[in-house]
Write a structure and sequence with these properties.
Length: 186
């Protein structure tokens, strides 16, 4: 159990710099709550350790914690790396599902990202869980990715594409050959 009196509402680079022990004491507890989602995403725990944890250190990611009755009720991971603003993961713990915790986590994610329509994606099985929230915010499916993370299962993206086939490189990279446009696969 994570109690609100002991732990923050936001874990980010600033929090970790001020509380270095949190890397050993808090993050494993938070990651334990998230690892229950691993059935929807292969290598989920690896993603936590190789993407989320380093992203917290660099400032590209933040973890939002929500509490009810002094207990952790839900959490979200957001990414803001200067190119992409994404609500990467949202989990409402079972005893608190249907109590408004998901709505609160969406609102707080929007505040942290300073964006009311960030990119997000969900496993096809989760569409009914999120349908009410997506309708409330006016989110629409941008693309369906068959077999993206798992065979015979689709990933649905909202407010943008999970991966874009091409993006224009920064002007500073084009300066070497200003007469041609360069593209890169993300």
């Amino acid at each position: 159990m994570i109690e609100s009196l002991e732990f923050p509402r936001l874990i980010d680079r600033e929090y970790l710099n001020s509380n270095p022990d949190a890397i050993i004491t808090l993050l494993p507890k938070v990651f334990q709550h998230l690892s229950e989602l691993s059935g929807y995403y292969p290598a989920f725990d690896e993603w936590l350790s190789k993407k989320v944890f380093p992203g917290l250190i660099t400032g590209e990611r933040s973890i939002i914690l929500e509490y009810r009755r002094r207990d952790l009720s839900g959490l979200a991971i957001v990414k803001n790396d200067g190119v992409e603003q994404k609500l990467c993961c949202l989990r409402v713990l079972p005893p608190y599902q249907g109590t408004g915790v998901g709505l609160k986590l969406f609102e707080r994610s929007f505040d942290v990202l300073n964006n009311e329509s960030p990119l997000l994606s969900i496993a096809e099985e989760q569409i009914e869980v999120f349908r009410k929230l997506f309708n409330y915010y006016g989110f629409e499916i941008a693309k369906i990715y068959p077999d993206y993370y798992r065979p015979c299962k689709a990933e649905l993206s909202f407010n943008g594409l999970i991966e874009q086939s091409t993006i224009l490189l920064q002007d500073s990279l084009i300066q070497n050959n200003p007469n041609s446009l360069k593209f890169a696969v993300r």
